């Protein structure tokens, strides 16, 4: 308990480059680490949101094309995750044409029309200096609102999004160098005296499309996730539990005192 | 198909498209109504749910197949003999004759006539190896004859035996005679050593014991069964605690673990006087924390090996590591407590801080449950000392520490837990009736 609270203090001290809701990390500094310049216990985390938005087609709906939906993976703060993600492979239901959709440029999404809900597998492939292994996410496509009896409306879509974070527990130096100061991820605090090589300047400001989703057409339906509520809940719960523990400990010691006296007391 | 027909009849709404059952391919609804295998009628096919079975039990193409036209088939009433019979009895039966050629070969069921090989001994062999104080030669001979006739069915043999003997005795005699014979007839002991009779000889006492135990178990009343189950569970728990305590003695490594230990150590010295089984309990308060520290370290290491993982996955692994040392019941109680506190079992916004806090909370709840258990044991220990007999361990009560109503999210006022707690809370102030008797005696003695 004590160690984690100290690491939290460290996190709060450092100035955040990205949005204030996302802190996170552990940087244990030991002598051996500094000597070897091995980056132990530095992790980079990329907060993402994945899910789907589905519109009912109303009058234009047919039996097999009743909804128009889009499934996607985006940065949680709508920043461009293509700095880390090279491509995303969406595996749709086999009844679709070309059920394996490879999206190599942001925004990483697939739009389709259909009638059925099924599980979609999204495999994120990262750039070679980030990670060799792909990572899979699973999302159950939701078209119909929870409240089955309500009328379907064309205006408001059904939106189901999940928040998660991709954690890279031991990032390479080149990765660190490339992404320092990028807003899509949380950059760890490096051991003092550690210098990253300057990132290679890539002049593509004009050519590349913007990869962030801040102006996405569906942006108005995106959920914004805040950790504040959850933290508050957890803090309150922990307080209660701790108070209770203290109470129990007192009771136990009282009982022990009683038991002792009984044992050593006179035999009746 | 049958499903929708039934729903029609009952007037139920057809299942919405979103149900996973109809997630099938888009073209499937059309396909199903058009195609069905030939050879069986549509209604019959619909009985199976309109879907072909995974493993076709009957080859459907065989069902309507007619015999080839060039064959001429007739049925004839013909005599036959069976190699299974020793006499030359000739019986008659219907035979399918094709193109005037009757079928050849032995009677088709003759191959099932198998029998057991029973050794036969000569009188000389009997004199030399097989004499027995309890068994006469006539009896032994008769036993062997019965074994031959009844194919070693000892229950039948025991029934028919003129001198009343138990099944075990008969078996014992038969197998020991066989063993002696084998040994006597073998060229060398090594040849015989691999024979199953030699490797696992029939032990009459063990057999008797086994049958007795079996009949006892079968004839147990339900009440007895429950008691046995309870006792076994108790024994298991005690052995597990002993095991955990033994493991806790192993050297402890990191500073974190020492911090955890220091807190629990305050409890340990106080109980050093108590009897051995109870002294294991403070050790168990310590043991889970040491075990799980090692588990966390190894989980973290395995997560690092992945090079990339989702934080929700990471949290799951850590929670599993925390729960590895405890039983299913405890895990359920932890989850119940979390729900009562208004905390999501899986955080909706799993950032690093949230996940760390969540994990810490779970650990604290585990500590809490442990302490509760300790408290109960202390109480029962206390009461057992007073009564002078070993009181049965109280069942873990299902009292929920944090009932959901009074605890609003983020409440600032200190919540009075005294009135909510049952049982243990009363101890300090009001003596329970069990204490009163000794006290009264004390007073009168003075």
Gap between N and C termini of chain B: 89 Å
Low-pLDDT stretches of chain B: 17-34, 251-288, 389-398, 404-444
Order of helices and strands of chain A: HHEEEEEEEEHH
Q: Whole-Å distance between the termini of chain A?
A: 47 Å
The coarse overall form of chain A would be: flat
Helix content of chain B: 55-70%
Biggest chain pair interface: A-B, 75 and 78 residues
The biggest sheet of chain A amounts to:
4 strands, antiparallel
User: Measured on Cα atoms, how large is the radius of gyration of chain A?
Assistant: 26 Å
SSE arrangement of chain B, N to C: HHHHEEHHHHHHHHHHHEHHHH
Unreliably modeled segments of chain A? 1-38
How many strand segments of chain B? Answer: 3
Structural class of the helix and strand makeup of chain B?
A: mainly alpha
Structural class of chain A: alpha+beta
Query: Helical region count of chain A?
Result: 4
Strand order of the largest sheet of chain A: 5-2-1-8
How much of the residues of chain B is beta strand, in percent?
A: under 5%
Shape of chain B: flat
Organism (chain A): Camelina sativa
Subcellular location (chain A): Nucleus
Region (Disordered) (chain A): 1-36
Keywords (chain A): Coiled coil, Nucleus, Transcription, Transcription regulation
How would you describe this structure to a colleague?
The complex is a heterodimer of chains A (268) and B (446). Chain A has helices at residues 2-13, 31-36, 173-179, 227-264; strands spanning 44-56, 67-75, 85-91, 100-103, 108-114, 119-126, 135-140, 158-168. In chain A, strand 6 (119-126) and strand 7 (135-140) form a beta hairpin. Chain A has a four-stranded antiparallel beta sheet, with no helix packed on it. A four-stranded antiparallel beta sheet of chain A has the order 4-3-6-7, with no helix packed on it. With 268 residues, chain A is α+β, with helices and mostly antiparallel strands. Residues 1-38 of chain A have low confidence and may be disordered. Chain B contains 19 helices and three strands. Chain B has helices at residues 2-10, 28-34, 42-47, 60-63, 123-130, 137-150, 154-160, 167-185, 189-193, 196-199, 204-218, 222-248, 255-265, 267-270, 276-306, 311-323, 328-340, 352-387, 433-445, and strands at 73-80, 91-98, 309-310. Chain B has a two-stranded antiparallel sheet with strand order 1-2. In chain B, helix 16 (311-323) packs parallel to helix 18 (352-387) and helix 17 (328-340) packs across helix 18. Chains A and B meet through helix 1, strand 8 and helix 4 of A and helix 13, helix 15, strand 3, helix 16 and helix 18 of B.
């Amino acid at each position: 308990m004590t160690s984690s609270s100290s690491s939290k203090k460290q996190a709060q001290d450092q100035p955040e480059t990205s949005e204030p809701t996302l802190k996170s990390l552990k940087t244990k500094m030991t002598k051996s680490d500094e000597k070897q310049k091995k980056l132990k216990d530095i992790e980079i985390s990329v907060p993402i949101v994945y899910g789907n938005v589905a519109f009912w087609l109303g009058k234009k709906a047919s039996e097999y094309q009743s909804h128009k939906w889009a499934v996607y993976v985006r940065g949680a703060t709508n920043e461009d995750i293509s700095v880390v993600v090279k491509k995303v492979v969406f595996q749709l239901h086999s009844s679709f044409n070309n059920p394996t959709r490879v999206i190599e440029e942001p925004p990483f999404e697939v739009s389709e029309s259909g009638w059925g809900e099924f599980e979609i597998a999204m495999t994120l492939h990262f750039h070679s200096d980030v990670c060799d292994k792909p990572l899979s996410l699973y999302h159950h496509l939701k078209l119909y609102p929870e409240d089955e009896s309500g009328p379907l409306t064309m205006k408001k879509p059904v939106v189901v999004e999940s928040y998660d974070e991709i954690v890279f527990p031991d990032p390479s130096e080149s990765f660190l160098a490339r992404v320092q100061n990028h807003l899509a991820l949380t950059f760890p605090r490096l051991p003092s005296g550690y210098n990253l090589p300057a990132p290679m300047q890539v002049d593509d400001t004009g050519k590349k499309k913007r990869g962030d989703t801040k102006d996405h057409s569906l942006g108005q339906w995106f959920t914004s996730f805040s950790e504040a509520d959850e933290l508050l809940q957890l803090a309150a719960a922990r307080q209660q539990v701790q108070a209770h523990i203290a109470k129990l400990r007192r009771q136990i010691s009282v009982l022990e005192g009683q038991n002792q006296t009984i044992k050593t007391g006179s035999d009746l | 198909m049958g499903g929708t027909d039934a729903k029609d009849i009952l007037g139920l709404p057809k299942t919405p498209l979103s149900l996973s059952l109809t997630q099938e391919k888009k073209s499937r609804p059309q396909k199903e109504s058009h195609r069905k295998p030939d050879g069986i009628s549509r209604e019959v096919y619909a009985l199976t749910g309109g879907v072909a079975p995974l493993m076709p039990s009957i080859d459907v193409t065989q069902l309507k197949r007619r015999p080839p036209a060039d064959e001429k088939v007739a049925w004839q009433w013909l005599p036959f003999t069976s190699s299974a019979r020793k006499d030359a009895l000739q019986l008659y039966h219907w035979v399918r004759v094709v193109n005037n050629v009757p079928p050849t070969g032995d009677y088709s069921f003759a191959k099932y006539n198998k029998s057991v090989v029973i050794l036969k001994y000569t009188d000389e062999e009997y004199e030399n190896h097989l004499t027995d104080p309890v068994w006469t030669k006539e009896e032994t001979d008769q036993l062997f004859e019965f074994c031959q006739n009844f194919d070693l069915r000892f229950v039948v043999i025991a029934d028919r035996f003129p001198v009343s003997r138990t099944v075990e005795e008969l078996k014992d005699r038969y197998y020991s005679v066989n063993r002696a014979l084998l040994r006597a007839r073998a060229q060398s002991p090594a040849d015989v050593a691999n024979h199953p009779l030699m490797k696992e000889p029939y032990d009459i006492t063990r057999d008797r014991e086994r049958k007795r135990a079996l009949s006892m178990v079968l004839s147990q009343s339900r009440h007895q069964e429950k008691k046995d189950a309870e006792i076994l569970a108790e024994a298991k728990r005690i052995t597990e605690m002993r095991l955990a305590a033994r493991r806790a003695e192993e050297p402890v490594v990191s500073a974190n673990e020492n911090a955890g230990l220091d807190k629990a150590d305050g409890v340990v010295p106080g109980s050093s006087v108590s009897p051995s089984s109870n002294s294991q309990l403070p050790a168990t308060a310590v043991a889970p924390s040491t075990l799980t520290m090692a588990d966390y370290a190894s989980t973290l290491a395995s997560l690092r090996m992945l090079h990339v993982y989702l934080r929700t996955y990471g949290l799951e692994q850590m929670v599993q590591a925390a729960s590895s040392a405890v039983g299913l019941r405890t895990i359920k109680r932890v989850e119940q407590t979390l729900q009562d506190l208004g905390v999501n079992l899986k955080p909706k916004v799993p950032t690093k801080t949230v996940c760390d806090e969540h994990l810490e909370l779970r650990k604290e709840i585990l500590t809490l449950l442990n302490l509760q258990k300790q408290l109960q044991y202390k109480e029962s220990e206390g009461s057992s000392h007073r009564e002078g007999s070993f009181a049965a361990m109280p069942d873990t009560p299902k009292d929920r520490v944090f009932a959901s109503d009074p605890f609003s999210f983020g409440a600032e006022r200190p919540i009075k837990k005294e009135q909510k707690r049952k049982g243990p809370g009363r101890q300090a102030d009001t003596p329970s009736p069990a204490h009163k008797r000794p006290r009264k005696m004390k007073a009168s003695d003075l």
